[in-house]
Amino acid sequence: MRALIIRVAVGALALVAAAVGTAFLAAAQDQPAGTPSGDGRLVLISGRDDHGLVGTARVALYWRPGDRTPVAQVKDGVLARVLLVSGSWLQVRTVDGASVQGWVDDFYLRGTVHLIGPAPVCRVRLGGRLLPAGEQAVVLDARGSEARVRDVRTGRSGWVPRSVVQELAPAPEAGCARHKQGYDEP
């Protein structure tokens, strides 16, 4: 019986310590207790509407989820790392250019991007292979003028110029030559 009481008391103390630790960490980050952590993924900040048209050239970042006064404005197409998540709001820190941090509704974030090289071919080389123009990818890391991406279709990953990481697939008027899908060499 005594062993059971000790186990219950130790379990209760562990729960209290975890709750106090979570509240302390949340207070240190100026976030409400219970706010889940971000997963560190990279996302593209987008001011585009559902049709791909620029709705806002600069996306507002806020001090807290749901605020009305922005703390910063971020240019459409900037990469950012997810720090915290609270419902549909994500706290992000930009990795392109000067570091800016704030909260943004997930409507303005894209997890999947397209890889588009320069016209007329518009294809991108990844891991020694040419990808079809507009291949979908997920950004894994970024440093300087490069981004590490994983091709959604094949799972291959590697570094590409940051300039080829875009939100939309190439439009017909982009001047990209048509190539069959696959890893054919030019």
Short descriptors:
186 residues; alpha+beta; 5-stranded antiparallel β-sheet; 1 helix; 15% helix; globular; disordered C terminus
Note down, in words, how this protein is organized.
With 186 residues, the protein is of the alpha+beta class. It contains one helix and 14 strands. The chain has one helix at 2-28, and strands spanning 42-45, 58-62, 70-75, 79-86, 89-94, 101-105, 109-110, 113-115, 124-126, 129-131, 135-143, 146-151, 157-161, 165-166. It has a five-stranded antiparallel β-sheet, with no helix packed on it. A five-stranded antiparallel β-sheet has the order 13-12-11-8-14, with no helix packed on it. It has a two-stranded antiparallel sheet with strand order 2-3. A hairpin with a 2-residue loop joins strand 11 (135-143) and strand 12 (146-151). The radius of gyration is 22 Å and the shape is globular. Residues 4-35 and 180-186 have low confidence and may be disordered.
SSE topology:
Blueprint: H1 2-28, E1 42-45, E2 58-62, E3 70-75, E4 79-86, E5 89-94, E6 101-105, E7 109-110, E8 113-115, E9 124-126, E10 129-131, E11 135-143, E12 146-151, E13 157-161, E14 165-166
Antiparallel strand pairs: 1-4, 1-7, 2-3, 4-5, 5-6, 8-11, 8-14, 9-10, 11-12, 12-13
Beta-strand content bin = 35-45%
Biggest sheet overview: 5 strands, antiparallel
Q: Structural class of the helices, strands and pairings?
A: alpha+beta
Low-confidence stretches: 4-35, 180-186
Give the overall shape, derived from the CA principal axes. globular
Tell me the number of helical segments per DSSP (H or I, 4 or more residues long): 1
Order of SSEs, N→C? Answer: HEEEEEEEEEEEEEE
